[in-house]
Amino acid sequence: MIEFQNVSKTYYLKGIEKVILDDVSFKFPKGRNVAILGHNGAGKSTMMRLLAGAELPDAGRIRRHVKVSWPLGFSGGFNGQMTGMENIRFVARMYGEDTERVIEFVQEFSELGESLTLPIQTYSSGMKARLAFGVSMAIDFRYYLIDEVTAVGDARFKRKCDEVFKQKLKRSNIVMISHSMGSIRQLCDMGCVLDKGKLYFHDDVEDAIAHHTKNQNA
Amino acid sequence: MENLLVTQTRVIGALVLRETRTTFGNSQLGYFWAIASPALGIAVLVGIFSMVGRVPPYGSSLALFFATGFLQFELYKKLSSSLMGVFDSTKGLLAYPLVTETDVVFARAALIIATYIFIMVIFFGTLIAVGLAEFPRHGDQVLMSIGATALLGTGAGMTNAVILRLWPTWKQIEGILNRPLFFISGIFYVPSHFPPSIKDILWWNPVLHCVEWIREGYYPHYQSTLLSKPYLFTVALILVLFGLGAERLYRKKRK
């Protein structure tokens, strides 16, 4: 269960005040896939970072009593000097997973082969993304956070990702930000619209999209 | 959901291994230098003092006398300077929902402390093996003095880290303020031999107390007229509490 209790978050940048969340309370319902919609700069990514605990609210509490992933595709936590293998080991250890199993899975999935024994700083961004995606798929999270699914690799690899992801969704749920209404319709069954610090909740993802579209055209 | 303590221990464990990997670089040579560089520092001190024909300020072994001072000083310095940059170097890690900033601080401190205990065991062990030193007379005092130094260094490092976050110039200022520390910490002299006017000033330096304490523990008859364990612990605890408190207070401001 993830729950926002009276959460407020404001940014101050050079004297300009920007309210991201203003006293928001919201409980993510069990077993639902949630889309977060909002115009550019509304604070969707900040909300994702709050969900992941990478940032803390100014006021209120965020309760996370389930295993939540880091924002998917994110590779910022990887250390450039360490090899792909060592980075995988670190994450696996941290989550108390069987290291060998995780390595095997990522090896199989990412198709990085020998490159796994090289330091990450030698990787291309596509290779990094494949590694990051592979690692997050190797661990069973209750919730996956997806911030704008980035194109990972070629079409064939993309299909592979979709397949694994579909398997995951049988037992896990997602919270997702995307500008592509297509992928939101495909993956989410409900939505929230973030607008001027308030979060509007819609039980049907179509209603949320309609609300969002209306905001865009207003 | 599993036990919080179990999770945190596991996370810190994983972080320690990661830190080990990043601190010591890509080769076995990294471990070697971690041990060799303080040893060389002591060797240089011993060399200079032997060349000018000085007798050890205390006891019969220059190497032992310098080692007791230098290793304590280095442990403190390493902690206070490495922890200072901790928030910068670990930003990416915070995106993992499991990791908090204090976890990273504790992991880094644990690695440094373990490394220095290892260095001390090797160094004192070697001195004992080649007959340049006896076994420590009061082992418990030696251990406690190392513990106090570790606490002081961790506190200073955390305090440095929070000040640095609020005021980036602190890195330079701290460097300047710490420069004379090597000379005022009793590394190559016996502070008790100084006249009271100088002793009264030196007394305020907590690192000096760390050095005096380990010598009282190591040598059978070393008696310090300066050592105040309560003072050392007070300073260390204030720094630790300040560091933890300020981190909590400013946690929300991090970017």
Description of the molecule:
The complex is a heterodimer of chains A (218) and B (255). With 218 residues, chain A is an alpha/beta fold. Chain A is built from 7 helices and 8 strands. Chain A has 2 domains: 2-69 and 176-217, Rossmann fold (3-Layer(aba) Sandwich), CATH 3.40.50; 78-140, no CATH class. In chain A, helix 2 crosses helix 3 (99-110) and helix 3 packs across helix 4 (125-138). Chain A is globular, with a radius of gyration of 18 Å. The longest helix of chain B has 29 residues, at 101-129. Chain B has helices spanning 4-23, 28-51, 62-82, 86-89, 101-129, 139-166, 170-178, 181-184, 196-202, 206-218, 229-250. Chain B is globular, with a radius of gyration of 19 Å. Chain B has one domain (4-250). Chain B has 255 residues and is an all-alpha fold. The A-B interface holds A 49, 52-58, 64-66, 68-71, 74, 76-79, 81-82, 86, 89-91, 93-96, 119 and B 1, 7, 10-11, 13-15, 17-18, 21-22, 25-26, 91-100, 251-252, 254.
